[in-house]
Predict the 3D structure of the following.
Amino acid sequence: MQVRLISVTAPLIRVDSQELTPEGLMAYCARVSSPHQETPDYEKLLGYCIAKKHWSVFEMADMTVEIVTSRAISPQILRHRSFQFQEFSQRYARAQEIEHYEPRGQDSNNRQNSLENLDDVTIAWFEKAQKEVAVLALERYNAALEKGIAKECARVLLPLGTRTKLYMKGSVRSWIHYLEVRTDRSTQKEHRDIALEIQKVFMEQFPVTSAALGWG
Ligand SMILES: Cc1cc2nc3c(=O)[nH]c(=O)nc-3n(C[C@H](O)[C@H](O)[C@H](O)COP(=O)(O)OP(=O)(O)OC[C@H]3O[C@@H](n4cnc5c(N)ncnc54)[C@H](O)[C@@H]3O)c2cc1C
């Protein structure tokens, strides 16, 4: 799993001869009806907008991240329909690697939860099983390509652990709600780990918003 910041909205206007930050831009747009649109401070304003659920203000700035994960997790990410995506296509390029995950036990009381309660023998068995499947799947997949079978057909041989890369672009509003949901324990750990990495990036880029949300 890897997360990398790709871009953040870069405002072009200046206020008091100063470049606006992305958060300054959101505040500037929020004050469209105010005679004090150029007020430089915005901590209170952004906090107020969050408290009053004035979410459209947070649609005025965007952030894009690159995510490397597996095909088991990318469909969960792609469900966040307010984002724009580009994902690695197994129709056009050769799949290269298969991710390995540490197994957890099934929580019998909560289907959305898993438990770190497996013994070493079971963990070792699963790791071996993952390796065996990965070796066999890649061997057959590569053989299929060598026989001239199209990538879009050969990929059916690949497991959900196959590595993928995607670009995810969304407004600060979308990121706030994505991060609230996907850093929660109800989200699968492998996805939660991605969301926690994105949250670190978000907190660096949007420190005032993050503080108002009580993050960090
Ligand atoms: C634990 C968990 C289990 C799931 N299980 C299933 C399942 O079994 N089957 C299935 O099909 N799907 C499941 N999903 C997917 C889920 O139903 C959504 O499709 C997915 O989380 C995307 O959320 P979204 O539609 O809100 O999209 P997003 O793109 O995240 O949000 C859409 C819009 O709503 C806004 N928004 C979101 N929350 C708020 C809020 N609180 N206040 C104001 N605006 C808000 C966003 O800003 C955005 O503009 C699960 C998700 C989770 C987290």
Q: What stands out?
A: The chain has two domains: 2-66+164-212, 101-161.
